[in-house]
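Structure, all two chains, one model.
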Amino acid sequence: MSKDNQSITKKQFMKELWRFKNGSISRRQFLGVTGLGVATSVLAGAMPALIPRKAWSASDIGDRVVLATWPNYHDPANFEKFTEVTGAHVQVNVFGSNEEMLAKLQAGGSGWDVFVPTNYTITTYVGEDLIEPLELSKIPNYAAEAFDPRFSDAGSVDGTVYAVPKNWGTTGYVVNNKHTDGRKLTSWKDFWDISMNEFTGRTMVHDYQLTTIGNALKYFGYSFNSVDPAELADAEKLLLEVKPHLFAINSDYQPPLRNGDAWMSMCWTGDGKQLNTDIPEMEYVLGVEGGEIWSDYFAVPRGAEHPDAGYALIDFMLDPAVNAKEVLAHGYPVADSRTNDLLPKELLEDPILYPAQELLDALEFGAAATLTDPNRAELLARFKAA
Amino acid sequence: MKSSLVHRLLLLPATMWLLVMLVLPLLVVIIFSFGDRGPAGGYVPGFSLDQYANLPARFTAFKNTMILAPAGTLAALLIAYPLAYYLAVKANPNIKTVLLVMIIVPFWTSILIRTYAWIYILGGQGIPKMLEFFGVEGVRLINTPYSVLIGIIYGYLPLMVFPIYVSLEKLDKRLLEASQDLGASPIRTFRNVTLPLSIPGIATGCMLVFILLMGEFLIPALLGGGKVFFIGNALVDLFLQSRNWAYGSAVATTLVIVMLLTVSIYMKLMMRGSNIREEVSLL
């Protein structure tokens, strides 16, 4: 297929494209000369869902799409495929917190076409007028009824759909059992206590107020979402006490865990799955006290420069065949029954992706108030600057 | 009359540039520093000194900057001077250009990527692993002030080498011969002739490195693991995470004031130093 693409230069391609647009040659001739016909038919043969529809037929969506997302959250092969099908190159910006995404959008000129906000942030984006209502006709692969409403509800605000579900997951921690002397860690209390003792200099926490403060609140048994000043003061005291013992404050924790510098880190489902697959001693733990359950969404920011390419990318990613490949690569569950039908049974029963019910029951979805609460924002900034 | 018009026209682009790109933004920052954080972050107008009253919450970041920026400048100077001296005075003219290019070559790669590489060099599998091989156990470098210092010296060394090199390059070699002829030892020649004449280069290099270091955020962010915070990191955090533009502006304004004070004291000391030397050399 790549051979077919190489058989014509960019210049020739543009010339043929203009001839086609002017009507000098037919669509069939155009596809034949440029190799696009072969390309699409080969792809269509391999994956029926990839027959180009209007949203992503070649060359009318521009040559790139800018995606703001999270670390280790995609299968790069799918991006390459998207580029092959549509001609648009996917430029990825990686973020470590929803606050960072919100700040970028508030400052203006983010340059993004698609971003991946978490459930609890969407009402704020709507309130601040930073997000576009989605034109669902441009996302034919989105079928609302296929999604578990627990993980798709937050995409709609007052009946308008602003975001469609990407993945859901939990926030626990990953611990390298090689260093625990056979001890099993099960709670957030264990996490913070061992960080200040046997694991000094080996623990990582997220650079993210929701999870780092939330899981410190859990040490005291408070709500993950608390904005109560007295409870936040307790959490801050704990965080400041732990800080000298930390290896780092960073949401991209896989590299130091893999090379052995860090032994434990706050961790999202998929990273836990990826690490556990490669290094079996790495165990993903959900604190018995609770913590976070979340759902991420695809959304289009106000003023996106390449909205067509953005919609094309969202639609492409929601194609069950593509989505299944994503899940196999990143290990985050999806709420889409069509995608789950394509996934192997082992994965659908994997305890990292689908934890035991009693552990799930203790988890909380992030609350919108935490995103905008000035005390939580300043607490984390103070903790980092301390 | 005519020439003054020409002067004005010549100065116009630079003046406009400074006005639009420096003075106006600075005014915005100062105005914002008296305001408040918006409900979802950002800025709402107001007039209070609350943001300034909250400055002690960033004391550690100021302290880190005020320790590591001068330390980094000094360390860079101590390493850069012999190198610049070798390049300007001792190096074989035939390979001099090659050596100079070798100092510039790293600039062809982004500092971000080069600093990222240091994460692995300083991480557990890098230098500490090597030291273990030689029997030194338990060394931790990454995410400590030392790793930040190493990163700073690495990143800023060329900025220190070149001004010193230029001042030593211009040095009239006959002065060195005269000093020698008059019976001065090499050390005395260096102390009384070479060093004083290279003071302008040292002053420029130190200033360049120090001012940039005061606003540094990339190296501490990557090599400090979020634990060694410069005031630059605190600023990035206030604008790009906690979205408190008012407080961020107050911190930024304070940084500018601290920097102006430090640099003017430094300039004064330097001027006095070079004046004294001139007087001495006149005697």
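Confidence is low (pLDDT under 50) at residues 1-6, 37-56 of chain A.
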